[in-house]
């Protein structure tokens, strides 16, 4: 075994370790979260240039499983898993979109959007779920009696869990907050054969219950407090740097709810730094919805501590979380990377999403939160306009068409700035011509 990884308690006074095939989510000694640790010394035996060459050789290749954006970096993710237990759907390798036109409108020339939603189940959650489900398959093959894998979800985690479990032939169980996820997100786990439990509560309520039911070790917990998912998600930052030919951008902007994703982004970048693959230290910005902003509030208080709040209903439903499980990990990352936290109102996030769409994107509301955060920070001169900025788009807009329909039909609590209503006409050339005449006169289509 050339490389090694294990669970380690994140509490620096404890640092207890556990093997990766142990069913454990929190440290049994002190109760803190765990993280996966790697034998960095062993990884350092290969130099930075050689790692880059290996990752480039594998990137999007057909050599299974290394063509996956996650498994192409297997040695950094789960070095000891048998390839035959890997459950992969070719996740990662998503395109990095040069938002030239949006950048021009906002006065920045080097703006990029990492489209993590262009993935199997339509969100970045695939990156983490391939790792977790693969490890479960490995444990089952070693004789561990796991009957099912369960999660609480704001919609995208459950879709990813259900798809990967279905591919592996393992039973998924999903607990969803009733009426708080999109139709697309609800039908995904139903289609994949999950046991779908719709509960009359919010995400935080579902989380409490899933923690109880997974005390029975035959039901494995798939939420991001399970640090295996972070290992897959951490490849997002590595992949972005790789896509820029190993030149790190200046700023990453990411929407945050439970804060596993920002913790993962930072973990990947730190690993690159340790292994000599990071040519500069970027800045990380987390954007939250104003109606679910416990991290933003803590940021204003100098990150004294997390004060959980009751998250209010927001259009950015996947980040409607008041008690984020990865708060501590996220704060460590923000302190390491000169972090900023911003928040966005409902209108700000919806307008930012619509503006992105007007320049050719199809953004989910969470990406709207990140774009709104970018717009705010530019206005406040907190981001240098000459810098290379990457916004992490977390899901595909097609999962959130109800949000977009309501916006453009003017059925939200505010009037969107970029509303675009269809014109209903009789099927006559005359009527269409008349509509064209007036529309093209009054509306300069190529202006936003
Ligand atoms: C899960 C999710 C987020 C939030 O990620 P966290 O790790 O919970 O901070 C953001 N956007 C989308 C679309 C998501 O599914
Ligand atoms: Zn501990």
| E-strand count | 13
The ligands found in this model are: pyridoxal-5'-phosphate, zinc ion
Q: Could you say what the CATH architecture of the domain at 96-122 and 230-407 is? A: 3-Layer(aba) Sandwich
CATH class of the domain at 96-122 and 230-407: Alpha Beta
| Head-to-tail CA distance between termini | 57 Å
Fold and architecture overview:
The chain has helices at about 40-45, 50-60, 75, 100-105, 125-140, 155-170, 185-190, 205-215, 230-235, 235-245, 260-275, 295-300, 325-335, 345-360, 365-380, 400-410, 430-440, and strands at about 5-10, 15-20, 35-40, 95-100, 110-115, 150, 170-175, 195-200, 220, 250-255, 285-290, 340-345, 390-395. With about 450 residues, the protein is an alpha/beta fold. The protein starts with a strand and ends in a 6-residue tail after the last helix. The mean pLDDT is about 95. The protein binds pyridoxal-5'-phosphate and zinc ion (ZN). Zinc ion binds near residues 9, 14, 29 and 32.
Please describe the topology of this protein:
Elements: E1 5-9, E2 17-18, E3 34-38, H1 40-44, H2 48-58, H3 74-77, E4 96-98, H4 100-106, E5 111-115, H5 125-141, E6 148-152, H6 156-168, E7 171-177, H7 183-191, E8 195-199, H8 203-213, E9 219-221, H9 228-233, H10 235-243, E10 251-255, H11 260-274, E11 283-289, H12 294-300, H13 327-336, E12 340-344, H14 346-358, H15 365-379, E13 389-393, H16 401-408, H17 429-442
Parallel strand pairs: 5-13, 6-7, 6-9, 7-8, 10-11, 10-13, 11-12
Antiparallel strand pairs: 1-2, 1-3, 4-5
Helix pairs in contact: 5-6, 6-7, 10-11, 11-13, 14-15
The chain binds pyridoxal-5'-phosphate (PLP) and zinc ion.
